[in-house]
Design a protein that fits this description.
- By secondary structure, the chain is an alpha/beta fold.
- Helix content is 41%, strand content 14%.
- The chain is built from 12 helices and 8 strands.
- The strands form 3 sheets. It has a 4-stranded mixed sheet.
- Helix 1 crosses helix 12, helix 2 crosses helix 3 and helix 4 crosses helix 12.
- The radius of gyration is 19 Å and the shape is globular.
């Protein structure tokens, strides 16, 4: 995790610049100037973060690249959702995540019977708030402002008992960012959601790292091709950032589209995963 402790604001600024100016194929010097670094230091910082050069990363952000991924029949693994994962270490983490829906009694009256621990952590994409019950991760969100982030958490379970504590459930889940899947034991997610939402979130988990899909494809995999809009709403209601990879859902045109925690962050995540996936192949 130490190598991923970066100035995310600089990376985000560079990505924004690349998104706006990719047609001009900006030079390394031009990009570095935007984030007030020398070309040497910027190149090193970017490669430490993404594992590839800014120029290579730019390729992963193009619409044509996204369209190519969408055309890949294995892009979502909907036809082989229960693969062993031996096709690449970057896919192994999908096998370790399991969703358990909360019972009505566990969240009735605003979670009055729930004990929720929460803590703050760093990720390659900025600070996170991660929260857990005794059964698993119940919430994870990018947190620009810690006070506001806690308030958002408490809106989900207003009557639960809270304490700021990093527990083993959270710590195990955070290993997901280290790329060392062998350190993971099974990650349990303990989620409040309708049966339809839980089904959509389970489907999202089956999208391999570095791959992409569309709202329509998810609806089709659930044998309800007309449910794209409802799928979009459920994707937007995802309470667990990154572990439930709603960032891997894009528009059918190949455009990245919106994201609950910001389109720039979504762009960063897609490009980062593409780079890590290519490295693992």
């Amino acid at each position: 995790m130490e190598n991923n402790k970066i100035d995310y604001n600089r990376i985000a600024a560079a990505i924004d610049y690349l998104k706006l100016n990719f047609k001009a194929q900006p030079s390394l010097e031009a990009i570095a100037e935007q984030v007030h670094l020398s070309p040497f230091h910027f190149q090193r910082m970017f490669k430490d973060w993404a594992g590839v050069s800014p120029k290579k990363f730019l390729q992963y952000l193009s619409v044509e690249y996204a369209k190519g991924i969408l055309k890949d029949k294995q892009a979502t693994l909907f036809d082989a959702a229960y693969e062993t994962g031996l096709s690449g270490t970057s896919r192994l983490h999908d096998l370790f995540i399991n969703i358990e829906g909360m019972t009505p009694g566990e969240f009735k009256n605003g979670g009055a019977q729930l004990q929720i621990n929460y803590s703050f952590a760093e990720s390659p994409f900025g600070s996170l708030l991660v929260a857990s019950t005794t059964k698993g991760i119940c919430y994870m969100a990018f947190a620009e402002d810690e006070t506001q982030a806690v308030e958002e958490l408490k809106k989900n379970f207003p009557n639960a008992a809270y304490r700021q504590l990093l527990d083993m459930i959270q710590q195990n889940a955070l290993y997901i960012f280290t790329q060392d899947w062998h350190r993971l034991s099974e990650i349990k997610l303990h989620l409040k959601g309708t049966p339809f939402q839980l089904k959509v979130w389970e489907t999202l988990i089956k999208i391999p790292m570095g791959k992409l899909t569309t709202y329509g494809a998810i609806a089709g995999s659930m044998n309800n091709a007309k449910a794209s809009r409802a799928v979009g709403t459920a994707v937007g209601d995802n309470p667990v950032a990154f572990l439930i990879p709603c960032h891997r859902v894009i528009r059918s045109t190949g455009e990245i589209g919106e994201y609950h925690w910001g389109s720039t962050r979504k762009t960063a995540m897609i490009g980062w995963e593409a780079a890590k996936n290519k490295t693992a192949e």
